[in-house]
Amino acid sequence: MKYSQLDPFPEGFLWSGSTSAYQVEGATLEDGKGPSVVDLRTQFPEGTSDYKVASDHYHRFREDVALFGEMGLKAYRFSVSWSRVIPDGDGEVNPQGIEFYRNLIGELRSKGIEPIVTLYHFDLPAALHERGGWSNRETIDAFERYARILFEEFGGEVKYWLGINEQNMMILHGDAIGTSGEDHDDSDPHKDLYQQNHHMMLAQARAFNALHEMLPEAKIGPAPNIAIVYAATSKPEDMLAADSYNAIRNWLYLDMAVHGRYNSTAWAYLRAHGWEPKMEDGDLELLASAKADYVAFNYYSSMTVQADHRSMTETKSSAGDQQLGASDPGVQEPADNPNLEKTAFGWEIDTVGFRITFRQIWERYHLPLLVTENGLGAPDTLEADGSVHDGYRIDYLRSHIHAMQEAITDGVEVMGYSPWSAIDLISTHSGVTKRYGFIYVDRDEFDLRTLDRFKKDSFYWYQRVIEANGLPD
Ligand code: BG6
């Protein structure tokens, strides 16, 4: 469907920008913060740095928020570091951690920027990880307590909340992202992973219910990574593979967060492998009782698969990263999509897939949609005069915003757009060389240089988008 005219973006549309605590803050063990699973990492892909200083946002947040204000952001999506607030995950609260986020939220509010707060973005407290992490049901209690503390402390100032960021990627690509820990048992990790998945779903359900009980005016939703899955050909078995992988990668997580039940195709996949999670009395009731107010999702690209003709009992090979997919015996194997260009880091660029993803999510769930990540990772260059010419990022964002407007014209209710990332930060596994921000941070992998901030061309361009409440002419 190619419209001659597109509907405008709604009034009050949340033009936003995203970050996550461990990727931007630095100060990993400062002012009482405990280590998280990310700080336990000793190995990083060659040539990439750790997260100790990151973008030094912890010390420079006032300057950063001033820049966000200048850019015109209506909202800012960030995550709270669980181990900054509760250093060991379930013990004493760290007052300096609370103070940091109180100051950050206050600073945002003073610039008229709506905070959108993610409870948990990959950085499980190390102390909980050492006690079994998400394999241990006690982590569910710890998460609910942590969520309640945040609702209590910040509920007066924060209306929009997100549960768990990319739970699906932690399950499918935890090794690439660095959330599985380096000491896990590789014999058959999947049974345990799907047990962890079940526990995370219960934890998120408890957080949804706690928010609705404590702050009836506030809103919360899940934030998985959704990549619509295409079939490599029109062969029925390839279509079936795409349908199965859509269920395993995407709908399992949203069906649970919205309808409070396991997706049937994904459940059949778990049963066929013997990976169904152990449940306790009351689990299914709890899951069914929790309600999402909106669906937030991260979108970088679509995915293309073809049928895998092996038996499902063969061993699954190790996965690629979030957008590169994995081959799954008896289900699907990833295929290149020859119709799509790729970023410098090999991720396909698919704006039409963005529109299809909107439509599919909307038709399945009929809840308002909030894009919590979308963006282009690229190695930017800081020029001698302090400019950064990232026209490629503008092209990426422009075409995705256009596709989003087409989806709005298709009838999809979209409440906001929060590109990744508001400011440069450290990628999950490609260091700071893979930059996403509107604001350049002067550092490279191992040389921290000045850490000064510079406005990229995309900064000025996004400023005009926000001013115009849509793409400028
Ligand atoms: C998402 C994550 O997977 O994609 C972010 O929620 C991440 O934390 C982003 O940074 C981009 O991925 P990457 O691997 O390029 O950092």
UniProtKB/TrEMBL annotation:
A Pfam family matched in the record: Glyco_hydro_1
Polar residues: compositionally biased ranges: 314-325
Region (Disordered): 311-339
Active site location: E373 (nucleophile)
Top-level division of the source organism's lineage: Bacteria
Keywords attached to this entry: Glycosidase, Hydrolase
GO molecular function annotation: hydrolase activity
InterPro entries the UniProt entry points to: GH (IPR017853), GH_1_N_CS (IPR033132), Glyco_hydro_1 (IPR001360), Glyco_hydro_1_AS (IPR018120)
Family indicated by similarity: Belongs to the glycosyl hydrolase 1 family.
Name this polypeptide is given: Glycoside hydrolase family 1 protein
Lineage: Bacteria, Bacillati, Actinomycetota, Actinomycetes, Micrococcales
